[in-house]
Write a structure and sequence with these properties.
By secondary structure, the chain is mainly alpha-helical. The chain is built from 10 helices and 6 strands. 58% of the residues lie in helices and 11% in strands. The chain starts with 12 loop residues before the first helix and ends with a helix.
């Protein structure tokens, strides 16, 4: 059929969709061989995958070494998700950037290095997720699991080595857009600013000054 969409390597689709549907990333530099294989296949046949996901109501994005899925949502649902993402991403990026300003895709660090850094920083330590035992080691481990689940890092089999993936570019770009354009302006999370009202008040003040000027001149002449 002319309009039939054929997606290469259909056996991969269940795993690919599972990763992308939950907001994850498929990165070319992942520690997982299967993830790297998914990326190569999707990169090679991107148009076919894009059309396939589009008919399901999703948009496939391919950027700096990663592939990501976005969903067409009602405005209210989109705003709710953005607030959730912002609430998570801002503290995550603050911890990571202050821990290693040079952090970039391909960078590796050890979990104990992050733990030592946070042990000496009360403010950043307060941004970590809570755990039942409240111990710093378990809180750091939970934090790393969270950002690994999002796809921003991969954790090695030794559970100590952490590799920053290409999806980290998404995190930086996401926050940069908020800083450049403003959360409210870019994502329309608040009512429109009072521009017209402010302009009207300014005009009224100018009119009042003009009305007062002749009176002041007359007083000076008298």
């Amino acid at each position: 059929m002319e309009n039939e969409i054929i997606v290469p390597d259909m056996p991969y689709m269940r795993d690919i969709f599972k990763i992308l549907r939950t907001g994850g990333f498929i990165c070319e530099d992942s520690l997982s061989e299967s993830t790297r294989r998914y990326y190569r296949k999707m990169d090679e046949h991107f148009d076919a995958y894009f059309k396939y996901f589009l008919q399901l109501g999703f948009y496939l994005e391919r950027k700096q070494g990663y592939i990501h899925l976005t969903e067409a949502r009602p405005a209210q649902a989109t705003q709710g998700k953005l607030r959730t993402d912002i609430g998570n991403y801002l503290p995550w990026l603050e911890i990571l950037v202050k821990f290693r300003p040079e952090l970039a895709p391909g960078y590796q660090f050890k979990s104990f290095e992050l733990q030592k850094f946070l042990d000496e920083n009360d403010e950043l330590r307060s941004l970590l997720p809570s755990t039942d035992d409240g111990q710093l080691a378990s809180r750091v481990a939970k934090f790393l699991r969270q950002i690994a689940q999002e796809g921003f890092i991969d954790i090695g089999v030794d559970e100590s080595t952490c590799l920053v993936t290409s999806a980290y570019n998404y995190l930086k770009e996401y926050i940069l857009n908020i800083k450049l354009y403003g959360e409210h302006a870019k994502y329309n999370l608040s009512p429109e600013p009072r521009v017209k009202e402010d302009q009207q008040e300014e005009q009224e003040e100018q009119d009042l000054e003009q009305d007062q000027q002749p009176s002041l001149i007359n007083d000076m002449e008298e």
